[in-house]
DNA sequence: CATGAATGAGCATTCATTCAT
DNA sequence: AATGAATGAATGCTCATTCAT
């Protein structure tokens, strides 16, 4: 299959980035983990930064679209939120390394890239604003409400990475969705 | 004045770490920002890692103690939570760089250090368990409830660093405390 | 050609080590003398110390074996000593830098390595003990007799490095061998 | 007493130089071993090199004079040699560190300094030339004969530093002197 | 005399990247 | 496509030395 080495590199990079950070991971380590030499990286990516960006693009924006689609299938803000949380935790359970990478990449060099785009944050914000218009979500700053929900949902995922919460996360999805809902319900 | 250079170094380091990450900040940069040469770092710290650890120790554990004290002055879990959130946001407003550093250092090399100790996380957990015993907080996994509250409180701080929420945070402390409370209230 | 850069590095290192000592020679200088950049050193050696050790291993123990072989071809301790001295001085004339390096490395970090092994010192000691059993060498502490012979043979080589004795040393090999022999003959 | 710190520094330096070489010993280590701070070194010496030179001057040339005096009290080359060896080994037994330093300093930066001067080497050479004139020492290149004797005498000292020969050396002085004498006797 | 903080040049080593094969 | 050798800049750190106190 075409791109086998490229995939190995991206997979190895995700694992290492999740464990040691982007700056803390060297090209040598990535190559070694993928079973190739450093030079091979540059056959598939312009450089380390491009490798990071490609992983991010390949997963972050599609993930936002996936989330938005899940939201669209539900009726009412509460059901939408439950659908979104389920989808987030399913993604987490599917590939923890990738999720951890996405979590930390947002604080790093990916800030600009994710700026205007349809990110997961914007999906939740849309949901919040619709709920407020419908009167089911309390009147408060929508950006703030979004951050509160985001934190309530993502922090258990982070906590799971560090052993504070037991996997799989899908098992607690509805519980968290309900808690997040009460936090902002009108 | 005692410790002037050492303090300059720590202050400069916090600012740079918050902006570019620990691995992304060089000793050269820290020294330049503090107005000294690199060698001076090593008169005050064993190495870069020791500098990171000293900043962490000097602020993280004391911060947890401060939080626990704030919690102790309030009556009932709801009031306790409000007091804790106020204290957290006051700390954030006081020194955003330091708060940002503390936030990211937890994911990095500080994990072990903060392990058993009386961390902010444990302060909230204590509050949650007490509330559950008193029947004011819903019966659910205490660790999970802690993570939900933690996320609801800290994510707005993170969002503030990235322009999603307007400073000062103290202005929204009670609002957030109330939202976090509803999320877990019985 | 195999190992060209590696060989250049080792050759350059030997020359510089002989002239300025191991601690007194920098990786910068070695790389420059070999016509490469510093980084190239680390493709071939784990570090500076490993470079020193590899030079030592590649020459010191083989040299001991060569000496032992020369000893084995002669009959009687006196002839053996003459054969050994000839071989030592031939090696010196062949590569003075290498010999100088071997001489000084023995006092430095190579002490342990050469400890139990079949070193040149042990070759001479074997010769001495055999001579004593045969009655051609005086009864005295074999270790001491070995050191006396060793000094009588090596000091002219050291002296040659400093202009006290004219090269080539092979020209005085028999003379020195005879003097060393008389020193310990029965 | 005046010069107490200076003496401590020189004594500490000798010990460290003997153990780790001159380049391998740092000013920090010397200061620490002497119980002062680095700055104190520069109150007594222009720099590290001056410290090395002062130790060398204070001991090497006086030692040569002592040797020459010892030689002068004996009658005939053989007796002279015995007197010299006794004095050398007595010096070794008195301060092994100092002797080891002197031994290695000769290969290092002290070469020029010791060049024209009345060094121990020249004392032995004088003895050899006189013996050759008197007919008691074989006719051979005097510089070579000097090196042979030098090696036969000093190598057991070096060997003693490395555990090949048991101290005290004064116990084997006459034995070594006799061996060295036979090596060059007519 | 001695300290302790600071310097600035230099150290061994590592990095992301290039390129001939 | 991939390798393996090489680069050159940068990294964290150490060195001998200086100097105000």
State the helix count of chain A. Answer: 9
**For the terminal residues of chain A, how far apart are their CA atoms?**
53 Å
**Superfamily (CATH H level) name of the largest domain in chain A:** Tetracycline Repressor, domain 2
Q: Say how many strands of chain A there are.
A: 0
The CATH class designation of the largest domain in chain A is: Mainly Alpha
Mean pLDDT of chain A: 94
Provide keyphrases for this structure.
0% strand; homotetramer; Arc Repressor Mutant, subunit A; mainly alpha; Tetracycline Repressor, domain 2; DNA-binding; 71% helix; 186 residues
What does this structure look like?
Four copies of one chain form a homotetramer. Chain A has 186 residues and is mostly helical. The first copy, chain A, has two domains: 1-45, Homeodomain-like (Arc Repressor Mutant, subunit A, Orthogonal Bundle); 53-184, Tetracycline Repressor, domain 2. Helix content of chain A is 71%, strand content 0%. Chain A has nine helices and no strands. In chain A, α1 packs across α2 and α8 packs antiparallel against α9. The model of chain A has no long low-confidence stretch (mean pLDDT 94). Chains in contact: A-B, C-D. The interface between C and D is large, with 37 and 38 residues. Chain A binds a DNA duplex (21 and 21 nucleotides) through residues 5, 26-28, 36-44, 47-48.
């Amino acid at each position: 299959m075409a791109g086998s080495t490229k995939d190995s590199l991206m997979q190895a990079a995700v694992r290492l980035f999740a464990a040691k950070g982007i700056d803390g991971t060297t090209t040598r380590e990535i190559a070694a983990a993928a079973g190739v030499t450093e030079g091979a990286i540059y056959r598939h990516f312009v450089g380390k930064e491009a490798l990071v960006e490609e992983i991010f693009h390949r997963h972050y924006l599609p993930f936002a679209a996936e989330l938005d689609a899940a939201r669209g299938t539900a009726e009412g803000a509460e059901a939408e939120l439950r659908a979104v949380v389920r989808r987030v935790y399913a993604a987490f359970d599917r590939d923890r390394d990738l999720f951890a990478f996405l979590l930390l990449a947002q604080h790093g060099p990916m800030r600009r890239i994710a700026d205007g785009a349809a990110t997961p944050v914007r999906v939740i914000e849309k949901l919040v604003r619709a709920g407020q218009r419908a009167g089911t979500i309390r009147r408060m700053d929508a950006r703030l409400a979004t951050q509160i929900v985001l934190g309530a949902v993502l922090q258990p995922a982070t906590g799971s990475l560090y052993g504070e919460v037991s996997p799989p996360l899908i098992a607690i999805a509805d519980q968290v969705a309900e808690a997040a809902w009460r936090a902002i319900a009108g």
